[in-house]
């Protein structure tokens, strides 16, 4: 049985990347976060470090963020750089 860990603070959605799925590593994700009080949405891939801000999407709302995160997670095969 896999132990689940808490999501980072302010993360509201998490998508497992293709690399995370292939390696059964639940830490290689694309995370969407919401800034408290502002509703601003940010997103980052924990594999390749690509961000929602780097994407070609003009809108930065939650719906668009979810679309970007899902699309990116389905194709990202990058592994995080070792610490």
Gross geometry: globular
> Strand content of the residues, in percent?
15-25%
Q: What is the rounded distance between the termini?
A: 26 Å
Strand ordering within the main sheet: 1-2-3
* Sheet of most strands: 3 strands, antiparallel
The overall pLDDT average reads 91
Order of helices and strands: EHEEH
Helix count from the secondary structure assignment: 2
Q: What is the radius of gyration?
A: 13 Å
DSSP strand count: 3
Enumerate the spans where pLDDT stays under 50 for 5 or more consecutive residues: none
* Content-based structural category: alpha+beta
The percent range for helix content is 10-25%
Please indicate the count of domains.
1
Task: Give a written overview of the molecule.
A hairpin with a 6-residue loop joins β2 and β3. The termini are far apart. 24% of the residues lie in helices and 20% in strands. It has one domain (11-75). The protein has helices at residues 18-23, 62-75, and strands at residues 11-16, 29-34, 41-45. The protein has 83 residues and is α+β, with helices and mostly antiparallel strands. The chain is built from 2 helices and 3 strands, in the order βαββα. It is globular. The longest helix is centred in the C-terminal third of the chain and has 14 residues, at 62-75. A 3-stranded antiparallel sheet has the order 1-2-3.
């Amino acid at each position: 049985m896999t132990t689940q860990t808490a999501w980072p603070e302010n993360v509201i959605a998490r998508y497992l990347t293709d690399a995370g799925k292939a390696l059964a590593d639940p830490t290689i994700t694309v995370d969407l976060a919401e800034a408290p009080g502002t509703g601003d949405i940010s997103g980052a891939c924990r594999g390749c470090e690509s961000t929602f801000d780097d994407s070609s999407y003009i809108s930065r709302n939650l719906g668009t963020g979810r679309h970007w995160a899902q699309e990116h997670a389905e194709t990202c095969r990058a592994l995080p750089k070792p610490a």
